[in-house]
Amino acid sequence: MPHAPPLGALLRQYAAGSALTCEPVEQGLLNRGYRLRTTRGRYFLKHHFDPETADPAAIARQHRATQRLADLGVPVAPPLTGTDGRTVAVVGGHAYALHPWIDGRHRHGGQLSTEQCARLGALLGVVHASLERVMPAEGRTAAKPAAGAERAETAAPTEGADPARGADPADTFALIDRLLAQVRRHRPSDAFDELARHRLLERRALLERHADRRPPQGGSEGWVHGDFHPFNLLYRDGEPAAIVDWDRLGIHPRAEEAVRAAVIFFVRPLGTLDLTKVRAYARAYRRTAGATPSELTAAVHRVWWERLNDFWILRWHYERGDTRADPQFPAASALAVWWTREYESVCEAFAG
């Protein structure tokens, strides 16, 4: 098995028996996970591999947060405590955590009823409200980058973006030119190159028309999950069983996380949003989080601008040679165009 974790040392540290099977979990681009069965039970072993989030102190903070949320009844899967009283095991310079195995499956918005979409929005509202109770209050007013550094599930701020205002269109135009040059140089040219070129030219024209709509400073900040999307939520018997992957826990505009999550859950394959489901989700979120319609409207604008300036999938493809996110590109790139055209309808769905 490539990158096999040091099971013997880890299981001794957790007194979790002897390994019977250990299988990699496929989802996730940054950290590594394993489905582990031992003589003591079933577990999820997480290798905190991403250098941005692998600091043991930060991981321990995430672990304390999930334990406190669990105490409040939020569906999470706190890690197990090792024999040394710690939840983070560092072996060979790598950080690991052992969690109970949660039976469940991931569901995207198309698999949820309207009522389940409302419960999803309410759940995220409960997460935000509960984090307010269990996390420290310091640092709430500090400007932070938008939640969602480069990864498959959420949009990334454009290189050079001002965290308080979002991407500068001048930087985006330069990035588009650079990516277009890389597309032209790619040989042999293929269907992905053709779509990339089309979307880059289309997006440049959109930005030229809307460059004066760069958003002002963001809204109310607080502790957020930071990566709330279908692959980080497990369902069992139609109900949320566990919110997982708290690596991006941090202080960011709360309403923007609510909008980003909805955009990921409710995007359709052709790059449109199911606004009926968005409306049910957003109403429930506003109720449980105590957010106002105007806060959601402002967040819609900021996330729209973020998406309009976002090319992280193309940067992974052409600059890193990493094609794992390529299947997301058709819908993600079409969404920015559709959202611009249907801007008022999207705002109404989140605020109505």
From TrEMBL:
**The organism's lineage?**
Bacteria, Bacillati, Actinomycetota, Actinomycetes, Kitasatosporales
Classification via Pfam families: APH
Give the protein's recorded name: Phosphotransferase
Which PANTHER family does the record match to this protein?
A: AMINOGLYCOSIDE PHOSPHOTRANSFERASE DOMAIN-CONTAINING PROTEIN, AMINOGLYCOSIDE PHOSPHOTRANSFERASE-RELATED-RELATED
Q: Where is the Aminoglycoside phosphotransferase domain?
A: 21-289
User: Which parts of this chain are annotated as the region Disordered?
Assistant: 138-168
